[in-house]
Design brief:
Helices cover 30% and strands 32% of the residues. By secondary structure, it is α+β, with helices and mostly antiparallel strands. Pfam families: SpoIIE (PF07228).
């Protein structure tokens, strides 16, 4: 910028909306050392639109990049400072309304944050009565509070402060940014609520607990839901006592994920327990569960299941097993020999006339039975699956003489290490060992 040709005491440029004003303060003849401002010597319209639009676009990208509701206030403040204001305080309300709480405070000079916080503690932040900015009295600061409103609900306030007055274009920009910030905050809250609901539903689908004492039986379970937010549904497991020295177990995989799969998961687990208490044998339980799934009609989902009963005997454990379309169950001998021990039968939710027959398996002292879902057997690395060429049997053969917990952990770690990318499928591992 070229300065005025005559001698001036002070000169500069100020902005208002789309206008740029170049001004000067000139000493007048006969005024001695005194000076007074004169009219602006030139005024020129400037186009700041593209710059502001770029700023808003970048801000929107940053705000859309997080779905953590605790991160959004921090992003808002750090976007605003120092571009639009010297400091920014973001106040939020709870998901059910309530008073405003200071969620994040940022100042261009970090050393002044604590002092500013004390000043703000003495100020009553106005509630949202309308959608227009509200001035705040705070020392020498020029302060404005911008409401954060999305879908007609108040989410909080964005308070900005600077030493001089807010130019109209800055205030308008902050107002626009506040609307975008409120939308980002609302989206993050909705996402967090859905994630909490998913986790609560997932917990409700897991067993209330496994037996504390299982004389003659050493067992271990690994369960890892996959996907963002650990989406509900998919794999499940259970192990529960049905009498003195007798237990039932199940490990299953519902086709798909989400609420529809979760409904079948809940149906399966509760049906297995209920029918066991009623005294039905393993084959009868699986047959009745198959019919119950089919009765769900359009909501029905295919289900693979490994279900069995364990009875303690003087020389180990006797098992009655049914594999309904499930990955094969493997028995590991203390010598390291691994063999498949069940016959695969029809998966559930397909054929109403399907009948099931239990296989009888004995586990001697030190023998291990391994049941997994296809999150293990179908773990993919490039064009290979973990269970190609008997991969799971080879892994299990290396686990001779290990405890049930050590076997389960060895398999889990092998699944994790098989590929670099995270697993896209749920994973469940059940290990039973006779002692």
């Amino acid at each position: 910028m070229v300065p005025p040709s005559s001698s001036v005491a002070v000169w500069g440029v100020s902005f208002s909306g789309a206008h740029r004003t170049r001004w000067a303060r000139i000493a007048l003849p006969g005024a001695g050392d005194a000076s007074r401002p004169v009219a602006d010597w030139t005024g020129k319209r400037t186009s700041q639109g593209p710059g502001w639009l770029g700023f808003l676009a970048d801000a929107s990208d940053l705000l859309a990049g997080t779905l953590d509701p605790d991160m959004v206030p921090a992003l808002i403040a750090q976007i605003v400072v120092p571009r639009l204001a010297t400091w920014c305080a973001v106040y939020t309300t709870g998901t059910d309304g309530g008073p405003l709480d200071l969620a994040y405070l940022w100042h261009a000079d970090e050393a002044r944050i604590d002092g500013l916080r004390e000043e703000l503690d003495e100020v009553t932040v106005p509630s949202v009565d309308n959608l227009t900015p509200v001035p705040i009295q705070l020392g020498d600061w020029q302060s404005l509070a911008f409401p954060l409103v999305a879908r007609g609900r108040s989410l909080g306030m964005m308070c900005l402060g600077r030493a001089g007055r807010f130019p109209d274009d800055v205030a308008q920009l902050a107002e626009d940014l506040g609307r975008r910030a409120a939308l980002a905050m609302d989206n993050a809250r909705l996402y967090a609520q859905q994630a909490d609901a998913n986790r609560a539903l997932q917990r409700s689908l897991l067993p209330p607990g496994t037996p504390a004492e299982t004389p003659g039986l050493d067992y271990s379970v690994v369960y890892e839901p996959a996907g963002e937010n650990n989406e509900v549904g998919g794999d499940f497991y259970d192990l529960y006592a049905v009498g003195e020295g007798t237990w039932r177990f199940a490990i299953g995989d519902v086709c798909g994920t989400g609420p529809q799969a979760a409904a079948v998961t809940g149906l399966a687990r509760h049906t297995l327990r209920l029918l066991a208490r009623e005294g039905y044998d393993v084959a009868s339980v699986v047959s009745r569960l198959n019919r119950a799934i089919l009765e769900e009609g359009e909501r029905a989902r295919f289900l693979t299941l490994l279900h069995g009963e364990i009875r303690r005997t003087p020389d180990g454990l006797d098992l009655s097993l049914i594999s309904a379309g499930h990955p094969e169950a493997l028995r590991l001998r203390p010598s390291g020999v691994v063999e498949s021990v069940v016959t695969s039968q029809s998966l559930l939710g397909v054929f109403p006339e399907a009948e099931f027959v239990a296989d009888q398996v004995h586990l001697g002292p030190g023998d291990v039975l391994l049941g997994v879902t296809d999150g293990v057997t179908e773990r993919r690395s490039g064009g290979r699956l973990l269970d190609d060429d008997g991969g799971l049997s080879k892994l299990l053969a290396e686990c001779a003489e290990l405890s049930a917990r050590a076997v389960a952990e060895r398999i889990r770690r092998a699944v994790q290490d098989f590929a670099i990318e995270p697993s896209a499928d749920d994973l469940a591992i059940l290990v039973l060992r006779a002692v």
